Structures are given as C-alpha cells and as structure tokens.
Amino acid sequence: MKTTPLLLSVFLCFFASLSKSQSHSINSVKSESVSYPEVIAQYQELTNKYASAQLIEYGFADGGKPIHLFVISPDKIFNIDSLKKIGYTILLINNGIHPGEPDGIMASLRLSQDLLAGKEILPKKVIVCIIPIYNIDGALETSLFFRSGQNGPDVVGFRGNARHLDLNRDFIKCDSENAKTFTKIYRAWDPDVFIDTHVSDGADYQYVMTLIDSQKDKLHPTVSKVMQEKVLPYLYKEMEKCGFPMIPYVNVWGESPENGMTGFLESPRFASGYSALYNAFPFVTETHMLKPFAQRTESTYQFLKISIRLCEAHGTEMRAARKKANAMTANEQKDFPLQWKLDSSYVDSLYFLGYKSIVKKSEVTQRDILSFDQQQPYAKNVAYYNTYKSVLNVQKPTAYLIPQAWHEVIERLQLNQIEMQQLKRDTTLKVAVYYIKNYNTGKTAYEGHYLHNQVSLKNDTQLIQFFKGDYLIYCNQSSNRYIVETLEPQAVDAFFAWNFFDGILQQKEWFSDYLWDDVAQEILKENPTLKAEFENKRANDSTFSSSSWAMYSWIFERSKWYEPSHLRYPVYRLDRKIPDSILIPVSNKISNH
Description:
Elements: H1 8-16, H2 18-21, H3 23-27, H4 36-49, E1 53-60, E2 66-72, H5 80-86, E3 89-94, H6 103-117, E4 126-131, H7 136-140, E5 142-143, E6 156-157, H8 177-189, E7 193-200, E8 209-213, H9 221-241, E9 246-248, E10 261-262, H10 271-276, E11 281-288, H11 293-331, E12 335-342, E13 348-361, E14 368-385, E15 388-395, E16 399-402, H12 407-415, E17 420-423, E18 427-441, E19 452-466, E20 471-474, H13 480-487, H14 513-526, H15 528-540, H16 542-545, H17 548-556, E21 572-574, E22 583-586
Parallel strand pairs: 3-4, 3-7, 7-11, 8-9, 10-14
Antiparallel strand pairs: 1-2, 2-4, 5-6, 8-11, 12-15, 13-14, 16-20, 16-21, 17-20, 17-22, 18-19
Helix pairs in contact: 4-6, 6-11, 9-11, 14-15, 14-17
C-alpha cells in the first residue's frame, strides 16, 4: 500500500502533545498488567453479569491450565452454525502469545468491559471472540528481567511456554497442546478477521503502532483486493483520526528504515500466515516497546475498537470475498505457490516518521553499532518493497493418499477439519511418487526441530499397496491451501520440513561386505552399462575409490536388494477419483458451542 503524505507540522504537533491529548485515555489504563487468574476472573464476572457474553473452556495449555475463549454476541446467540447462517461477521482476537507483550491482554479486557457496559457501541451482526491469554504457561512465569529494554510494565511473562516453545512458530507443526486448542477454536469459529496482538522491538521510530497485514500477493486475489481497497484504508484512516497514525510493520534489523523497508512475509508457522490459508483477513498489531505501556495499550484498544467497526462497515464485503475465495480455492485453483521471493524491481514509497539513525562505537565490543536519536525526528518518503513473486508452484492432484501409520500428520489434518475418507479394504493403486533427492537441514535446533529446506525431488509412478484404514484426501476443499502447503514436501512449512517424515530418510536394509562382494561382481558382469559407470566414477572420484563401503553401497543402491521405500515420500498423489464403494467417510466435526 502507499501511505498518503500528511503535513509534517501536524505530526510533529501530535507527538509533541501526545501526553496531553491522550491524558484521559492513558489514565484509564492500568500502569501494570493483571495476572492470568485476575484476567480470567474478570471475564467470568462479565459472563455472570451479561447474557450477551460467554466464557468457554476449549482445551488446555501444555502446563495444564485451561485456555478460554470469551465471546460477545449482541443477540445472545452462541451457536456457530446459526451465527454463520444469519450472516454475522466473526472477529477473533488472540492475546498473550508472548506474555511479555501484554498490551492486547489489557486492551481486550477493557474493551470487553466497555462494550458490555454500553460505554462503546456493540455493533449488530458482529461477533467478538477473544482468547484472553493464549500462552498461559509463559504468563505464569513472571520476572522483572524479561523483555529487556521494554518501557513497562515492570513485571512481565516469559516468551516461551511450558515446553519452552515460541507458540508463534507452532501453528503448522502443532507440537503444543496450546496450538491444538487454538486450532479447535479457529476452525470451529472460522473467523472472517483475525488479530494477533504483539509488541515490537528493533529500530526506533515515532509510531506507537505498526501493523502486519497478511502479505498482499500471498493472500487469495479476491481477499487481497478487498484488503487493499477497503480494509486497510479504513484502518489507517480511523487510527489516524484517533491520534495513533500507523505504518506497516518496520521489518528492518541492523539497518535504518531510512534505507528502505520490506513487507513482512509470514509463512504458515506464524499466526497470520496460518490464518491466510483459510482466506481470512489476518493482522498482527505491533506496538513499539520503547513507548510507555499505557500508551501502547491505548493504541491497541483503539485498533481493536476500530476493527469491530470495520466488521460492521465492511463485513458484508469481507464475507463475500471469503466465500468467493473459498469456492475458487476448492474448485478452480489448480496451481498453488509453495515458495515466495521478494521482487525488488517493484518499489513503492511510505511517508515515514522516524528518528535520525546514528552510528557510534560500542565501548563493549569496540565495533560500530546503529542507534537512533529521538532528539532528531524526521518525516520523509522511504522506499517500501512489498511485492513478492512465487518461485515454486505445484499443480494440485485429484487426491492425496496417506498411510495411517503417519498418525501425527493425520491428527493435525483432523484438527484442521480436513475432509478425509478411509479405505474400506486393502487395495493396490497406481500413484505418483516423490523421492527426496536432496535437502539441507538446519545445524541448530529451531523450536524443537531441525528444519529441512532446499528440498529437491525425483518423480516416479508406482503401484503401491495400501491397507484398510489408510486415508484419502480429495483436493476439492476450501482448505486446499492448508492441504497442499503441508503435504507438498518443498513447501516452506510442509510437514516434511518440520521432520514429521524423517523415518524415510534412514536406510534400513544393508549388507555384509564379505557376502556382498560376490553379488556385486555378478551385478556388474550382468550390467555392462552400470559397470562402465561404476568404473568411470572409481577412476575419477578419489573419495569414492578410497572407500570400499562407498563403492559397495553405490552398487547396492542400484540393485534389486535396495529397499524401494528409502527416501520415498509417504504421501502419494492420485490423478483420478477412486470408487466410493471402497471408501469410508471420516468425521472431523468439532463441537459447536
């Protein structure tokens, strides 16, 4: 998007008088955050007091505490199917994924109180759903020393959960009970608008609030058009009117925004990237850690309030865009992007309110360090790169087949309400097969995994034996993006990338060299072409020729003794339907409250 330049004097006057102009609203916000038990107690009190509110226990966090969803329904209707049928717009707000960033926790609680007490107008046909605190484990582990450098509150929670996981990297891999509970909430309510509240660090600038809107090129075009033409202009205009002008998330690290900024590309491991798979309108609010806590909370409060009004003003358009996108995803879209790359040939500009960047020498490291001088504010246009192009696409198959043995993958598909069927009897089918040809693996642990990347494949077609109970997934669903981006091994956040299929990467059948030597001789004698290739490699590859094991293995891998399942990706592609008579439907329906 392109931000319309405003008069510099207006902004300078705004920031000079911010403490005065916001004095009433800031004083209405506590200077300290409230604890998890206090938050839940206050939501329970609202539930007891108002018939238009419900606090629902949906599941548990890894630490054993329940995760709640607080729902405000103006017409006191809480059945999801009924709400969808009537035509409500559903807004889901997630708070405390990083408990050291409590702005959204406080803002959502205050907003709920104001809406139900009539201090703020509760729009008709808008359902407000709030996860009060998502990372409960981290919220219970408090310290004066978390969130180094953050301007309040004094005591904050820990970034990780009870298993030391960053939950904002867990939406696809779903290792935590937290993520499994979130998935149940998200897929049951299927929000039209999703907001995840955060606090940002990094470069310093004048804005209290920056915003991540799910990257425009990665969104379904129908949703992206409404986002760019209706939704974002509304949000930016209304936030400016209430005294909190926004800018897109300042995605620079170790550099100054003056040198240009790039749009944030959120893969499905992140909250907004996951939400985008379901053609929603996802946002991440990022207040700045150097701004006072009360000011940050106030800006989050205003954004959430404006988002509710957005749902009232443009809810019909957003729901229509989602309906069309879902239909196209299920029926018309054949080609699915798996990887994206910034296209730097497209450059826009943003009118940016920053602080002059300065380079000084660190007394600790004796090296240059980038800093920002708040005594030297500036307002200028900066380059903004926010066009991404897909660099790897795949054609969806008619269906995927997954053996039931891969139960961790099946469980995640079921959590996401993916429509599946099971084979009624043992069956042999001709299917398209991938072999993992090459891949890189991270050298350090990342959120409990060693991620695979730069995956290359070899294609084949084989007759595969499937068994009663194995799973068939047709790609005729509005959830096709989730299906394809988790099951295609080259996707950035595929289940393969997250190590769910690592068993196939290790060879299981081997040989004894003294027994294999005679067999290897016979194989080479019977295959002159193979023998010539072997001898050429032995003559020109010193590493190969210096290892008897390497030479024996080379022959073994090209023999009938070599196991066909080694490196064979155990999710198979089918280019046709199979008879309904050999299938059993699987119910993944999540209970609606």
